[in-house]
Amino acid sequence: MLAEAKKGGGKRAPADVRDCKTDKDCVLVADDCCPCSQGGKARAIPKKQKDTYEKDRKKRCADTACTEMMSTDTSCTQVPFCGAGICELGEPPGSAPKSDDPPKSDDKPKSDDKPKSDDKPKSDKAKSGDKVKPDEKPSSGIEF
Fold it and tell me: H/E element holding 88?
């Protein structure tokens, strides 16, 4: 099994063993027997190894039954990219703003988004210190 590389970390792979040069050299495949559409995980591999990988996976997994449900594993929403000569998985471009980017004008709260004072939920329960009406039982302050 191939070791997974961390995004942006580590040393570059030697030129003769690089998996990729560009993001297009990498493809998404099922990590083990079951794909994301059947409760599994995804991984990135070099495009040139996909046919061999899939053929081996089908042999290895011939007796494996997968569930008919979409996986919630984070790898299933990631995209393959080439990082330091190794195919990796990462967040799709534009999925999250970078921390050093200034907020867009759409991100600023609008004046009508502020809660109004009369929007607060009103409680029917007596607060400690409030007078209790004769038909209500005083609350101990502990709710179950």
Answer: strand 86-90
